[in-house]
Structures are given as structure tokens and as C-alpha cells.
Amino acid sequence: MSQYVIRRLGLAAVQLAVVGTIVFFLIRLIPGDPARASLGESATEEQVAAARQAMRLNEPLMGQFFGFWGRLLKGDLGTSLISGRPVMQDLPSRLANSLELVLLALAIAVLIGVLLGRIAATHADRPADHLLVGGSIFGISLPVFVIGTLLLLVFTFWIPILPPRRFVTPWADPLGHLQILILPVITLAGAACAVITRMTRAAMLETLSADYVRTARAKGVAEKMVVRRHALRTALVPVVAVTTVELTTLIGGTVLVETIFGWPGISSLLMNAVGQRDYPVIQAVVLATATVVILVNLIGDMAVRTLDPRTTES
Amino acid sequence: MTLTDGILTDTPVQAPPVRPKNLWRRALRNRRTAIAGGFLVLATLVALLAPLIAPYDYRDMVGLPLSPDGLLGTDDFGRDVFSRLLIALRTTLSVAVSSVIIAGVIGVALGLIAGYAGRIVGTVIMRAIDILLSFPPVVLAIAAVAILGDELVNVVLVIGVLYIPRFTRIVYSQVLALRHVEYVEAAQIMGASTPNILLRTILPNVSAPIIVQVSLSVSFAIQLEAGLSFLGLGAQPPLPSLGSMVGTGRDFLEVQPSLLIYPSIVIVAVVLALNVFGDGLRDLLDPRKRGALSGRAERRGNFYPGRAKRRGNVR
Lengths: 314, 315
What we know:
The structure holds 2 protein chains of 2 kinds.
Chain A: H1 2-26, H2 34-39, H3 45-54, H4 61-73, H5 87-122, H6 127-140, H7 144-158, H8 174-208, H9 211-218, H10 223-261, H11 266-275, H12 279-307, H13 309-313
Chain B: H1 2-8, H2 20-29, H3 31-48, H4 50-53, H5 81-116, H6 119-133, H7 137-148, H8 152-162, H9 164-178, H10 182-189, H11 194-230, H12 242-251, H13 258-285, H14 287-290, H15 295-300, H16 305-314
């Protein structure tokens, strides 16, 4: 196990290094001069020169590269070209806001998804199962921005129980924060929940017909225990794996959801930066989200490893 | 990511190959898959013939803004929503299909090479694929389109690159399993060249899971393209995309909810059909489900015929 952990950590470190390098070269892919591109046609020569200075484009490429890594390792992600503020001043709080949505949505999706998947599997081929299978494929087919916009239409205009309101931090107004949290979290949780339901159902159908479940039944173990202890627990391994993948999807989805509901997460940071061609900010957001994905995969793989003794032995 | 590989593949590596011809015939025997397939053919035809079917030019102002004139009313510029919806379907489908073709060709080629060329090449390619997977697609797509410029060609390229891993992973695992199968070894002994073995012997035998992946990938690509357009990064006005039409609908939520509802219905219908179709094909490929099927169960889309009898035990 420990050898595996070390190898897996090493792999994650390599991944981070490569991702960082790709992000470094990302803005250097811009045709022409990135500094001019960021300022537009009407920029004066002085402005372009200043932007080149701020983006450190005047140094030789190798110098830029090692400088980028040196600063990165010290936690310096560069300076916004527009506001002139270090990216690190805004990014952590925005990322935290986004992760709040993503993690809450994921927790809800896992709880409901596993429950529904279990119901579907234990009622295989009966109306409840058909309904859940149909419902989950429908859920997967709803793009987040469609669910989000429709929810906004229904709950803020048609049945105005959740009128649009300004963002408040949970410390300033816990109840208000909860209120604005509801729609974005439901939106994000929806599709993830459908995926987890499907995976739980498929995995449990397999474990329910496994030999050890038959043995447990033959021993006279109560059906509830058979389902919970024997079938569900083993079925959770692929569910954890798919949950890891879902988290990556949710991090992408949150960008769309935040735009719809005006949530101050990475989305507005990224979209503003895109609109103003604020390359250092774009770089930082890509790097930060990729880091989250790599860490999540690391944790997910470890969890699968711990849950499933078979993978440890092999 | 290494561990999740095996767990998340839906088709076990040892699965005996199904030839595509057989797959299509069997797919059409299942009612649900056939209906989804029929709808997709219809949607494709509508998209191809959109300029001919559309009663108005999608750029022309044909009535007052936001009026109920025409089949589905007019948008904020007084353009015919129905005509724009047809063109939007065409835009979205063509971006999604082209990007999946790019992803498919490169992804399959990489998978064949990675699986056949030996451990070092294989490891290098698969690790590169892992790296590509460590970017959240939507975030990377936004950044890449912002950097390259929001022409549709760039959107196609970006989505295409993002979906390469799906194909590479599937083909890779299948090729690994097929490498030492008798007929492949026979071809080697007979002196067939490597490209010949890869394209003529191995590729036909891994093509069924690739077809399934194409169907599911187009569905994801539609959602990604629509998401980018929704944010204003895909198709640029006046050219409509389903995503940008949902985006417009959001701006007029209170005034004219139909502007949001119609494009939403079209996206969901097409994506749902692709998912149902892809799922149907995938179930046919799964040997655990394949063996047990009776003709009737297959037609009804019931993949667990044996389970009904065991019901008493299950509860």
C-alpha cells in the first residue's frame, strides 16, 4: 500500500508539473503579440510596452519559464493586467465559493444517487426501476445551463419563492446565504445524481447476483443486511470511482451555473478575464482548477484502493 | 487515474468482438434504440436541409421584436424563432459531429499505436492522455477559445482535442486484449505490415465500442458546444447555436419565456436520443447482458429477463 501511495503521489506531482508547463505555454500560443492582443487595436505603444513588462514577455523564453515556476512555487500566480492586483488576492476566495457549490452538490448527489440506485437495483425490472432508469437517462441529458435557466424561470418568476437576490456570505447572513445556495446546488446536483444512480444500480445488480450474496442468503442473513452489508458495500467501489469523475464535470459545470445565478466563484473571474483578455488570470484559473482535479483524482484512487482489497493485492 | 480505468470501462476487455453490421441489426430490433435512432436520422436530415425548410432567412427581421408572429414567434430582433432554431440545430450538430470526427480519428489512431507499439510508447501516450484529462473540459475550452479566438473552427478543434482521451482509452484496452489473439498472430506470421494489421485486422474488431463512443461523445460535444455558445464563446451572431439561443432566452425570461423553452427542448431531445441510442448499443456489447437475452426481452429493451423470476429473493 505505502509503495502505491508513493507512486501515486509521484504521478500526481508529474501531472502538476506538466499541467503547469502547458499553462505556461498556453498564452504563448496566441498568434502575434499577447500583450497587443490583450489590449486591442487602439492601444498605444507605451501601453503595449507596459503590458509586455507586466507579463514578463521581454525576458528570454527560458528565463520566463523558470521565473514562472519559481514564482508559482512561492504561490505567486502573476498579476492581473486589468486591475493590477495579484491574482492570489482574488483567486482563493473565488475558488472557495465555487468549491462550496461543487462539494455541496456532490454530497447531495451521492446521498440521493446511491439511495435511488439501491432502490432501482432491488426492484430490478419493476415499475420503480423503470421509472428511475428512465429518469436518470433524462437527467443525464439535461445540460446544466438548461436546468439552471429553467429553474431560474420557474422559481424566480413563475412561482417567486426564491426571488433573485444579491450574494451574501454565510457569516453575514446565514439564512440568506442558504436561500441563494438552493437553486445553483440543485442544478449542479441534478446531472451528477443521475450518473451516480445509474452507476449504483449497475454495480448493485452485479453484486446482488454474486456468489457471496447467494451464500449470505443461504446462511439466512436478513435480506436488509444482505443488501446493505454485502451487496451495497462492494458496489460502492465503482460508485466512488465515478464520483471522482463527476467532480471534474461539476467543476466545469459550476462555471455555467455561477454565470446563470450570479454566484461570485471562479466563473465570473474567468469570464471577465476572457472578455478583457486578462491572460495571467486565465492562466491562474486553468491551473487552479486542474490542480483541484488532480488532487480529487488522487483522493478518489486512494479511496477505491482502501475500499476494495482486491486492488491492493494485485 | 490508473485504477479507475478498469472499473469504469463498460465493456470487459475479454469481450468477444461484435462486428458493426451485426450491431446495427440487433440495435434496430430493440424498440427504444430504434426510436432514438429514427429521431436522430430525422434531426440530421432537418439540420442538413435547414436552409431549405426554414420559412425565413435566419438573419432577416420578419416581424416586431418578441411578437407571437410565425410558428414559434420572433426573437428580440424580430427574427423568426422557428427558422433560427433549424439553423441553430445545424450549427450545433455540425460543430459537435466535426469535433467528434477529429477526436475519433486522432484518438483511435493513438489508441491503436499505444496498444500495439509496446510498453514504452504505450505508457507515454497513455500518460499524455491522463494529463489531458486533468483539465476540467469546460474551463480549458473557455480558456483555449479565449486565447485562440472564438471562430467556430477553433471551437471544433478545442472540443475535438478534449474528447481524444475517450477514444484512446477504449481502443487501447481493446488492442491490448487483441494483440495476442490467434488471428492477429497469424497475420503477423504471414508477414502483414504493421499498418495493415492495425487497420485491417485489429480495427474492425474494435470498431463496435468505437461506434458506441461516437454516439455518447456527440451528446457530450453538443452540451459543451452549447455551453460555450451560452457563454457567448461559440457561434457568433447573427449565426445561432442552440446554446446561444438559450442564452438569449435567459435575457428575456420575464418577457418571453418561449425564447428559452424552445431551444431547451431541442437540445434535450437530441441529447436524450443520442444517450438512449448509445446506451442501447452499449448494452448489446456487454456480454454479461448479451448471453441472457431472449428475442422478446431484447425487443422490449429488458436486459434482465432472468431477474424477474428471482424477484422473490431480491426483496
